[in-house]
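Q: My labmate handed me this sequence with no annotations at all. I'd like to see what the chain might look like in three dimensions before we decide whether it's worth expressing. Could you predict it?
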Amino acid sequence: MELLSPAGSLEKLRYAVLYGADAVYASGEQFGLRAQSTNFDYLELKEAVAFCHKFKKKIYITVNIFARNKDLNELPGYLTFLQNIGVDALIVSDPAIFSLAQEYASALPIHISTQANVTSWKSADFWFKQGARRIILARELNLYEIKEIRQKLPEIELEIFVHGAMCMAYSGRCLLSNFLNSRDANRGNCSQPCRWKYHLLEETRPGEYFPVEQDNYGTYLLNSRDVNLIRRLPEIQQAGIDAVKIEGRMKSLYYVANVTRTYRQALNNITSLSKRIENLSAELEKVSHRVYSEGFFTANPSSSNQHYENSAYIRSHQYLGEILTQEEELLLVNIKAKFSVGDLIEMIFPDAASDLEFRVTRIYDEENNSLSFTKPNTIVKIAFDQKIQEYGILRMKLSGK
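A: Here is what I predict for the chain of 401 residues:
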């Protein structure tokens, strides 16, 4: 199965590829459902394609908004551009964009987005007959339904999400953000109001807020758990799925790298996964996430797919930064969070066998002045006398976790 990872920036794309993705998905500055927050300009798209192809990996571009009339004038030129720079496929949900892609980017395979909510073999067959290469199945499907689609349609490629945030709305078709914040989720600008805190307000008691359930902070009746199907990969493979996808273009570089690496190891050892699953599952606990579930994979929706206590992320480890280069006995590090001399920190690498733990003895700024601790968004040097792999990432276990 192909492992498909999110690329919310050019830097995250590089780490996704180097940490084990077979392909990445990204968005241009327009026409994608994350286009307002994670996007590539035209030059970056060219660079992204070149980087992926250098490592013999694929890049798919999301063009999965629901188009309005005003979009139709710009789409032909954009689609032609994507074809000319050599992207490997388009991810589309709107029939209008599908039609335009066939006209202006006819050499590119088209993948049908999960936003198109394909929930039956007949719907998948419809898109296949229109010329779609792959269907990204709706997240609402269970294993039995997935198997039936494969049995009915042996020729089309099938892809499913296996890890990451789950939208509370049907196949991501949500109007809450538009209604509450004038930001259209179906055009790439979701403000995630499903994660906000809610109270009940009675009409005759202005300013008096009642929790829907007894909770000091409100209720989280819209708060979906994150999906985590790493234990189910053998069943997914047996069901005939061609590609498994990680959600998270808005997540950190560390999240993308470590989740990709963990699923890469799982797929590489899928026949003996049961022997490794506890260690791999533990690694997924070390990235920022909400309470995990298996989504709809084995059952219909229930309260077990929601987390009503809070919408906070679970964090056992802090992402500290990435290693830019090694200069003799110093590591040059791009800092994302504070750590201090004396702290015990970890380094992870694309090859997990190279991971190591060490205690910080000396920190210097770029002018070689000694520091006792780091500050986010700075570059520092850390004393380290071993030769290491490239593209290392620093993290630290949080106290009490």
